[in-house]
Automatic annotation (TrEMBL):
This is HTH-type transcriptional regulator EbgR. PROSITE patterns: HTH_LACI_1, HTH_LACI_2. Keywords: DNA-binding, Transcription, Transcription regulation. One of its GO terms (molecular function) is transcription cis-regulatory region binding.
Length: 331
């Protein structure tokens, strides 16, 4: 069984430093890199404290998803965010405990930090701020500058996607979203904003449903394809929506990408194995959890007064589902 001495030798620090870092001693003055190295070595050596002592030292961190996330059937994106947070939590002496606003006040008073996902209503955020000043927001529409935030740069990714499609000659570019807040709301806002600046029609070619499943993408894509003239490209706010849209397009007898192009957001592994493989905006959710916990632990340890915002990049993965605008209209 690994000991503090084993960790100290590999990290090239004293046993006392290892102990204080693992117990999140806020008075300890060492670099963030040293702290990270100690936690990583402890994980590699499978270091575990005695259960009674460990439980008494583990800090409780609350995890709250917005109502928009809770009310929808979980999709791959929200599941990947949760996995990213749970994975990151293992590198710190914390207990990550999920709760919702109805449970505020039933044990949540003991949270030393809270991580929220999605746009939390202002009243709910105020209630959380009375529990702890250490709050990290993920995937929110707006940044409350009292709190740290981690976000994916979906706005820039949408602009690059639209530039890519217009570069292929597309002018009638449809959008299928979910109408929810958080990431999908920002994706849709970027879509309408950029097309408006280019004086391209977005009102005719955008649809929003109430969920984010393939069935919604299928239904809304069928609606868009009834337009005259119909869109020559479709952008979907999630993988599931893109897959549903692909089915609707193929049922219509259209060839992808010869007659219509399709782009989705997130990039689940199956996207590259479909026929045709789907062009996707890859959202690096695997980095969200680590960034959130780094902000949370650093602010708790240093009592940092000024909030920070971390923006993680997204990238367009070009595959087979996009091509030049068709030379003739389909009917």
């Amino acid at each position: 069984m690994a000991t503090l001495k084993d960790i100290a030798e590999q990290a090239n620090v004293s046993i006392s430093t290892v102990s204080r870092v693992l117990n999140v001693d806020q008075t300890l003055s060492v670099s963030d890199e040293t702290k990270r190295r100690i936690f990583e070595i402890a994980e590699q050596l499978n270091y575990r404290k005695s259960s009674a002592k460990a439980n008494s030292k583990r800090m409780k961190v609350g995890l709250m998803f917005s109502s928009a996330y809770e009310e929808k059937t979980p999709d791959a994106y929200s599941a990947s965010l949760r996995l990213s947070l749970e994975t990151a939590a293992r590198h710190y002496p914390v207990q990550l405990l999920s709760f919702n606003k109805e449970e505020t006040g039933t044990g949540s008073e003991s949270f030393l930090g809270i991580i929220t996902v999605g746009q939390i209503e202002p009243g709910d955020l105020e209630q959380l701020s009375r529990l702890t000043k250490h709050v990290v927001q993920i995937d929110a529409n707006e940044w409350d500058k009292r709190y740290d935030q981690v976000t994916l740069d979906v706005e820039e990714a949408m602009v690059k996607t639209l530039q890519y499609l217009t570069g292929l000659g597309h002018r009638r570019i449809g959008f299928i979203g979910t109408g929810e807040n958080g990431r999908n709301g920002r994706i849709e806002y970027a879509y309408t904003g950029w097309l408006s600046k280019q004086r391209l029609d977005f009102e005719t070619y955008s649809r929003s449903g109430t969920c984010c499943q393939a069935e919604d993408g299928y239904r809304l894509a069928k609606e868009l394809l009834q337009n005259d003239p119909a869109p020559t490209a479709l952008v979907a706010a999630s993988d599931n929506i893109a897959i549903g849209a692909l089915r609707a397009v193929q049922e219509r007898g259209l060839q992808v990408p010869e007659e219509i192009s399709i782009v989705g957001f997130h990039d689940i592994p199956v996207a590259k194995f479909l026929t045709p493989s789907l062009t996707m905006v890859k959202l690096h959710t695997e980095g969200v959890g680590a960034a959130a916990f780094e902000l949370l632990m650093e602010r708790m340890q240093k009592n940092r007064a000024i909030a920070k915002k971390v923006i993680l990049p997204a990238e367009l993965i070009q595959r087979e589902s996009c091509g030049p605008v068709p030379s003739r209209e389909y009917t």
